[in-house]
Amino acid sequence: MKRPDGDNLEKFLNDSLNGILWEDDARIVWTLRSKSYTSDKEGYTVVFATELGPSAMDYDCILEHCREHIEIT
């Protein structure tokens, strides 16, 4: 595929949001990422961050939480 690599973009984004959305990106425990291409000259980034709380959530609960809060088009 094309550069930049999605994991490099994710690292840059996580690091740049330290002190803004979270104290340190080392606290991130779960991520969902995708990268897509368009013919447009400009793109965009959508970030959805939420504190999951002290109780352990399983994978299905996390996905349902995302579905409730993110509109996927």
What does this structure look like?
By secondary structure, the chain is mainly alpha-helical. It has one domain. The chain is built from two helices and no strands. It is globular, with a radius of gyration of 14 Å. The model has no long low-confidence stretch (mean pLDDT 82).
Q: Structural class of the secondary elements?
A: mainly alpha
**SSE order in H/E notation?**
HH
User: What fraction, in percent, of the residue positions are helical?
Assistant: 25-40%
Number of β-strand runs: 0
End-to-end gap: 22 Å
Largest sheet: none
Taking pLDDT < 50 over at least 5 consecutive residues as the criterion, the unreliable ranges are none
Radius of gyration from the CA trace?
A: 14 Å
- Number of contiguous helices: 2
Q: Can you describe this structure in just a few lines?
A:
This protein is an all-alpha fold and 73 residues long. Helix content is 30%, strand content 0%. The chain starts with 5 loop residues before the first helix and ends with a helix.
Q: Notable features of this structure?
A:
73 residues; mainly alpha; 2 helices; 30% helix; globular
